[in-house]
Amino acid sequence: MEISVDEQDLKLLLNDLIELYGYDFTDYSKASLVRRIKRLLTLDHFPSFAELRYRLKTDPDYLNRFVEEITVNVTEMFRDPDFYVALRQQVLPAIGSKPFIRIWHAGCSTGEEVYSMAILLHEAGLLHKSLLYATDLNPNVVERARQGIFPLAQMKDYSENYIAAGGKSDFSSYYTAQYNRVIFNEQLRTKMIFATHNLVSDSSFNEFQLILCRNVLIYFDKELQNKVFHLFDTSLDRLAYIALGSKETLKFSGLHGTYKQLGSNKIWRKEK
User: Fold this and answer.
1) Which of 54, 147, 210, 248 has a CB 3.0–4.6 Å from the CB of 244, allowing a cystine?
2) In terms of domains, do 201 and 227 share one?
3) pLDDT per residue over 94-150, tens digit each?
4) What per-residue string of b and e applies to 221-248 under the rule 16 or more CB within 10 Å gives b?
5) Does residue 226 sit in the same domain as residue 91?
6) Is the pTM of this model over 0.90?
């Protein structure tokens, strides 16, 4: 039998998370939060919502489990190959003239997009003067991203994505296979900085030529989306770029007038 989670239950739990741990999910999509909390109640066999709340209040270690389930970590290398073709053909040549390139992957999850970007930069001859900042709310996925280790079984699909994205080498040259997993080359990983960062409460920490935040904002309500867009705007150099997910847009945000979309791609250039 599914345990119900009403609006008052959700409010109490979100207040607990803020007061005890400083995690603020209050502006996340309520429907998405309820759906994922219900899933967690079933997965971990809680007899009631009150038991979940008590576990979170008394067991700080369980917080990691909760955050991992509530935040969405669905990603793959070279996801949406046409998007990477646009990056390769339109964005990298524009930012490549800079003396140094900083790119921020906000909500990096387990890091597949960060390694995809490093490969693009390498093939464009730009990796040597680039730094990729990869951040996520969830410290567990940040650590997995830092290691650069992925299942070998996924490499066939990733290789197909890479080829469709205009890949110029043998994809397997970028990693070493070890039993049922692969580790990506140190040359790529040395250009990456991994850290936890909360888009809701943390501030800007550098100036970037490109920010990628794909399929994260769809879980935020409109007010929180605008807050994050403002954070990105203050973090971007003039004529820099924002890249969003397939269902995300700047069109209805307060920034719409200062950014120009590149064709049909979910990439916008800062004009002012």
Assistant:
1) 248
2) yes
3) 999 999 999 999 999 999 999 999 999 999 999 999 999 999 988 888 999 999 999
4) eeebbbebbebbbebbeeebbbbbbeeb
5) yes
6) no
